[in-house]
Amino acid sequence: MNAWLWVGVLVIAAWAAHWGADQLLTPLKMLRKQWGLTASAGAAFWRL
């Protein structure tokens, strides 16, 4: 039973990370355009 609990936690954590990345996508795109960065520079900035 304990292993199933950890599998569930892992699945929920992966879903939460994906959801959070989707939530940040639009504001980061707007910030990149506001600062005048190219798409590749914006991606490099996002990876920091």
How would you describe this protein?
With 48 residues, the chain is mainly α. Helix content is 88%, strand content 0%. The chain has two helices and no strands. The protein has helices at residues 2-35, 39-46. It is rod-shaped, with a radius of gyration of 16 Å. The chain starts with a helix and ends with a helix.
Distance between the termini: 38 Å
Gyration radius over CA: 16 Å
Q: Quick one: overall form?
A: rod-shaped
Strand content: under 5%
Summed up, the helix count is 2
Mean pLDDT: 82
Outline the fold blueprint.
Layout: H1 2-35, H2 39-46
In short, what is this structure?
The chain has about 50 residues and is mainly alpha-helical. About 90% of the residues lie in helices and about 0% in strands.
Pick out its properties.
48 residues, mainly alpha
